[in-house]
Amino acid sequence: MTEHTLYFATNRNHVGEDRWHPDSYGTKFSNDGMENLRFGVVTVTADEKTVEQHLKAKIEGCGVGDGESLGKHLAACAQNAKITAYEETIGNHVADTAQKEAKFGSRAMFSDVQTAMENSSDVLLYIHGFNVSWHEAVGSALALQIMLRNAPTQDPTQNVAVILFTWPSDGMALPWASYKSDRSEATGSGAAVGRAFLKARDFLADLRDRAKKGGSELCGQDIHLLCHSMGNFLLQSALARTFDHTPGNTLPRIFEHVFLCAPDVDDTALESGQPLERIAQIARHVSIYHNREDKAMWVSDFTKGNPERLGHTGAARPALLHNKVHQIDCTPVVDGFVEHSYYLAGNITADIRASIDGWEQDDLKRQRIRNPTLNNVWAMRK
User: pTM here?
Assistant: First the structure.
């Protein structure tokens, strides 16, 4: 048996009497409000041989590694996980900057993450999508972390640590009620993520200020963001919240690379005047992964009354996108087994890891082909 650890932030309600060592997290917002964030570490014990079997599994067209099945296995293991939240003493009705003696869980976790980064580890913030319970969120995040650490494209001198942000996606398979509920909760949770972005901005700014004054040197590692499915809808609200609390007209660049995977948002969302138009301001690079055979996108589009989904056919007008933004069609390599969670399939995870490690979009070692007329449009190849 092997222990796997994962950093997390959540605005879910804790389950159990001890909020600092809860049994789990539930389907509702924190009792302290939808923007209240709890930061912590979850430790999951899993059978090493079973994990290896999923890592070595071959999916036709998708290469080696079945991260989706690995995630399901780890979600089952997470039923008995050890959860430790960073303790804090803060006033909910007082601005953070005005609480000189407060103890913040966010700062404690950022400090631990900083230590990991100083040991040659990039960080990837992961935001899950619709219909995901706490245990499923932990399973998917850990599967992503393990897949990225074992990708054939990995730089062996670099590690990747995933931080899970999990919001109260109710985990109930009720096609109509759950979807509408989760979209409302995603909108509210976006403000909580926006708060987390602002906390990260302030922490990074403080590190840079200390470095300029002759303090500790910056580690040189990068922070990335991956949003899956409705997590991209949540990101829209997060950007709006961040913009409302940012001086000037430009958002702070927090991330090196942002990955929008199977995004359940309008296919015009990144265009001027739309909710994700400022995405290029918070990152150096943005990658959209979509699948034309994604039935979840079809359901969102046709049965929920939404416009065409970005995760289904890609951007409506890719030529209008910022030059930082590239889109990758995964249809040629995914099948029904990974039609929506294909970011956890071997070849796709390897492509994401290549970007994390700084590969150029047109690197010949990538398993993708560029569109003959659009430089920012790609298709995965077997």
Answer: 0.91
